[in-house]
Amino acid sequence: SNSTNEAFNSTIAVLLDTGNLVVRHKSNSSHVVWQSFDDMTDTWLPAPGMFTVEMDPNGSKQYIILWNSSMVYWDTGNWTGSSFPNMPELSRANTYPNTPYTYQFVDNDQETYFTYNVTDDRILSRHVIGVSGQTQSSVWVEAAQAWVVYFSQPKANCDVYGFCGAYSKCSGSALSSSCSCLKGFSERDPNSWNLGDPTAGCRRNVQLQCGSKGLEKEKQDRFYTINSVKLPDKAYTSIEGTSNQNCQSACLNNCSCTAYSYNGTCSLWYAELLNLQDTIDGSLDNIHIRVAASELPDSRTKKRWIAGVAVGGVATLGCAVIALYFLLRRRRRINSMNLGKGSLISFKYNDLQFLTKNFSEILGVGAFGSVFKGVLPDATIMAVKKLEGLRQGEKQFRAEVSTIGTIQHVNLIQLLGFCSEGTKRLLVYEYMPNGSLDHHLFRSSTAPLSWSTRYQIATGVARGLTYLHEECRDCIIHCDIKPENILLGESLVPKVADFGLAKLLGRDFSRVLTSMRGTIGYLAPEWISGEAITTKADVFSYGMMLFEIISGKRNNMHTGTSTYTFFPMWVVRKLVEGDVQTLIDSELVTDVDLRELERVCMVACWCVQDSESSRPTMGEIVQILEGLVRVEMPPVPRYLQVLAEGVKPSEVSNLS
């Protein structure tokens, strides 16, 4: 009718940033005819795609993620009555503690389903399964103007089935994964690769020579080896391969065989290679990839050519050519070093000597070695740390460094390479132009950090430690959190440094740490009592550092000829009195958000509780600082009084 057409022509539909689809009048935006948020549903749409999330169709009580509607690459594990084994977020009486989210799983004779509710209307949440094959849950953080992921499975893209496609290798960590074609292969669909979708995989540059028995040996297919990998799927065991040579022959004599691996048992692959991964645990598995002979030129031909040149030349000219060859090779090797591209560089010691001008420009001195400035030919600056007193063997050191190198996070210093030659152990890091946090907090030569910057630094450090404690494949305890180990980038973005030393040095680190100068004020009580150390030791150290971020001074402040103030006790007193404004660094001239200041003070006091069970996790601290979770007034930590007594007993009585 005319009235219907008129109504239709006078309205518009708008999809808001919140996800709400609103139908409203064109001339009056406040006049809403209908909006999707008023008609919410509880149904996941069964849309087709390469990746899907669903209840197990075989009847088991678990959720699965499927690749191509056929291959299960992740599952929650069967419901135990209180939790999913592989999904702790759905445990603890079906709720996620201390957050505005509620989960529930229902399983009975009539139905099986789960519910996910956001109990706080101010929180925006979404759950997606992306083109990468990961399922993720996120919340919108207004302060950061970004979606923040708080749950994802699988943790690493490399664990997604077929993520890199055929004849490709996956490398990296949970936050940063990359795919690369194997030698002798090239991208099947370069446009998709350029758009970040490598699932089409790679294809051979030159087809295999089937029936190679009748060919000359120089033209037969060959193999090259990839070491330290997680082997591809769908391997077949061959009883013919009783040795590496027999295993190679078994593959070479079959036109369909594409690769083999031998570790006492002969494994053959007869189809496209899928899910080949670099390992981060020092695995010794290796695989031999079959390619056409033209992809691997005969080394004997090269030797004959070099010998001919040598015989036909003059001896002195030959020496000059060899010397020039090694010089050019060294320059090419240095020029080809591509830092920060996802894989660690194994440096030669003499190369690092050259790049650091024989270690002439020192950036700093730490407990376990000195740090020097190095510059690549492309002007990339790096920081080279010479480790001292490290007694690890070559193999163990390389395995540990390989693990640390895969850890990438915006708030963790990135390891770019290493050197291990005899007793020489060096680590190569990204260069941080603004130095360490202590330089900005405690030295008068620099302008004081604004409150917003300090709050950003406190939150960033908490995010970095959360990643080490909760999101790495192996939980890493830093063991030495203090301003000296927090480095600042160009925009003063904080990065936790030296987090790998705890893993490299192992338990010996604790004995060294307690005698380290300037660190005793950050140690949790359990270090001194000799109890087992957990991630809560880092939480304690983080809390002690928060006090210094607030005041801009060391916790043990000398305020006169005979007067000392133990700042953490002063914070406790001012919190009780409701006068936190007097705690902030007196040099700050910009406005301070008193709600943020009070929040940081309370977090710091919770972090330094005597019992580690009373301290929050770093993940909970991040949520508090981001304003997602409220924090209550903490009890007075008794341990602060013990520390204060070590400074000045009379001062404790004055503050108590």
TrEMBL record:
- Which controlled-vocabulary keywords does the entry list? ATP-binding, Cell membrane, Disulfide bond, Glycoprotein, Kinase, Lectin, Membrane, Nucleotide-binding, Phosphoprotein, Receptor, Serine/threonine-protein kinase, Signal, Transferase, Transmembrane, Transmembrane helix
Identify the InterPro entries for this entry: Bulb-type_lectin_dom, Bulb-type_lectin_dom_sf, Kinase-like_dom_sf, Pan_app, Prot_kinase_dom, Protein_kinase_ATP_BS, S_locus_glycoprot_dom, Ser/Thr_kinase_AS
Topology in the membrane?
Single-pass type I membrane protein
Give TM segment ranges.
Answer: 305-328
Quickly give the catalysed reaction: L-threonyl-[protein] + ATP = O-phospho-L-threonyl-[protein] + ADP + H(+); L-seryl-[protein] + ATP = O-phospho-L-seryl-[protein] + ADP + H(+)
| Gene Ontology process terms (BP) | recognition of pollen; response to other organism
Domain spans labelled Protein kinase: 357-629
Q: What GO MF annotations does this protein's record show?
A: ATP binding; carbohydrate binding; protein serine/threonine kinase activity
Ranges for domain Apple come to 210-292
Pfam (any one): S_locus_glycop
A single cellular component GO annotation: plasma membrane
- Annotated residues that bind ATP are located at K386
Cross-referenced PROSITE patterns: PAN, PROTEIN_KINASE_ATP, PROTEIN_KINASE_DOM, PROTEIN_KINASE_ST
Recorded coiled-coil stretches: none
**What EC number(s) are associated with this protein in UniProt?**
2.7.11.1
Enzyme class name: transferase
**Cellular localisation:** Cell membrane
> What is the designated name of this protein?
non-specific serine/threonine protein kinase
Q: Which organism is it from?
A: Aegilops tauschii subsp. strangulata
